[in-house]
Amino acid sequence: MSEPDHPTLVERLDALYEYDREPVAKSKLHGGKTFIAMFASEHTAGTEFVLGPLLVLHGVSAFDAVVGLFIGNILAVLSWALICAPIGVRERLTVYWQIRKMAGPYLTILYSAAFVLIFCLLAGAMVSVSTTAITHPLGIESPNYAAGDTLPSLSWAIVAVLIGIVVALLAVLGFDKIAHFSKVCAPWMPIIFFVGGISCLPMLGVTSLGDFWQAANEKIWTGIPAEGQSKYGFWSCVGLAWLCNASQHLGMGDVTIFRYAKKWQYGFASAFGMFIGHYMAWIASGIMCAAYIATQTAAGAEVNVTPGNIAWLGAGWAGLVCVVLAGWTTANPTLYRAGLAFQTATPNWSRWRVTLIAGGIMIVTACMPWVNANLDRIVATYGLFFMPLGALVFIDYWVFPRMGLRSNFAEHRKLLLSWPAAVGWLGSYAIGFLLYAKDNYAPFAGINDMLPELLARYKADSFMQVLPAWFLAVGLYIVCSLIQQKHTAK
Amino acid sequence: MKAILKVISYLGLALSLIPGLLVFAGTIELETSKNLLIAGMLLWFLTAIFWIERTSLEDEES
Fold this sequence. Notes:
heterodimer
C-alpha cells in the first residue's frame, strides 16, 4: 500500500491540485464582465513601462509600431478565443490536469518546476520596475544597462531588497487583500499611461492630431535603433504583441481561467487586455520614452530610460505611484503562484517558507539590470518553451479523434510519461532555440556549418520563432503518437 | 452612501484624464496637470476601495 507518510512527488503534486481536479460546477460560472475586468487589469502591468520603450530603443518605425502591434494583438485575441477558450469551456479543468491527462505526471512536474523559475524572474522584473519609481524621488540613480551598468548601486539594491521583502511578505500574509487592491487600481492605471503619453506629445512638437504621424516617424519610432541595440521591424512588433503571452493562449495556460466562463466567446474579452495594456500602454510608454530621450539630450543630461524616469516626465507623482502599483500588484500574484508551484517539490515545507525562498530568487533577479533590458527576449524564450505543450493539448483534443488516435493516451494507459509528448515539447523547443541561437549567440555559431544551406540561411526572429515551433511540436507529436499507439495496439 | 462614493470616484478618474487632454491642447501647463493628477489619484483611491467588490473567479457569482 502506498504510504501516506512518504508520498511520492507525483502524489504530492496531485494532492496540491486536488481541489480543482473536478470540472468547475455550473453554479460557479461567470459572465463576460468578469473576464473583461480580469484581462484589462492583468495585462496593464509594470512591464508595459519596459516593453513600450524597448520597441523605441530597438528602432521600429511608426508603421511597425502602430500597425504591427495592432495586427499582433488581433492575433493574440484570436488565439485566446479560438484555441484556448473552447477547450477551457468544454473540459473545465486547470492546465495542470489538462497537461497531466495528455502528457503524464512527470512532464507536468517539469512544466511546474520551469514555471517556478519564470514566475520568479517575472516577479523580479516587476520589483525592479517599482524600484525605479521609488528611488527616483530619493535621488538614487537607477542602473543604466545601456551605459554598461551590470549591477545596481548599493543604495538602489537596498531599496529593491526592501520592496522585494514587502512583496514576499504580502504574498504570504495578505494575498486576498492585494487581489482586491489590484481591482481598485485597474481602472486608474491605464488612464495614467494614456495621460502620460498624451502629455509628452507637445515636447515632441505635436500640438494637434495632424502633427502626430510626422512626429511619430521622425521623433518617436524613427526606425533607427539606439546604440548597441539590435534592429526590430514589423514582424518583431507583430510577434511581440501576439506571442508575449504565448504560454497563456497557444500554450493553454489560461484554460485555468476559462474553465469558469459560461461561453467560449468570452475569449474575445482578452481584447480589453491586449488593446489597453499591450497597445495603448506600449504606444503611450513609447511616446514617454522618446520625449524623455529628447528632453535629456537637449539638456545635455545623462539618458537613462527607466520606468520611473519616463513616468515622472509625463505624469509626475501620479506616474511614479502608477509605476510602483503596476509593478507591485502584478509581482504579488506572480510570486504567490511561484510559491504554489515550488511547494510541490518541497514536501514538508510550509507555504510561507517556500514563498519566501521564491521571494529571495525574485529579489536577486530584481537586482540584475540585464533582466529588464532583455525582457522582450526573455518573454519570447519562455513563450517558446511553454507553448508546445499547449499545441499538443490542442491537437490531442481536436485532431486525434479524427485521425483514429486515442486522446489523453497517458491517462488512458496510466503512463507516468508520454514519450511522444516529451519529444514534441522538448524536441520542438530545442530545434526552435538552436535555429535562433545559431545566428545570435556566439557559442552556437558553428551550427550553421552543419546545416543544409536552406536552414543555414534561415534567420529566426526571436518572437516569430514560436510559430514554426508550434507546427514542429504538432508534427513530432503526431508521428510519435502514431508509432506509440500502433505499437501498443499490437 | 455608496452612490456618493461612486460619484467622487468617477470625479477622481475624470480629474486624472482631463488634465492630460488639456496639456495636449495647450490649455494648461504640464506642472499644473501633474498636481491635478495627484488630486484625481487621491479621490479615486480613497473612495473606490470602499465600493469595488472583492470577488474572484473562485467565488460564486451572486
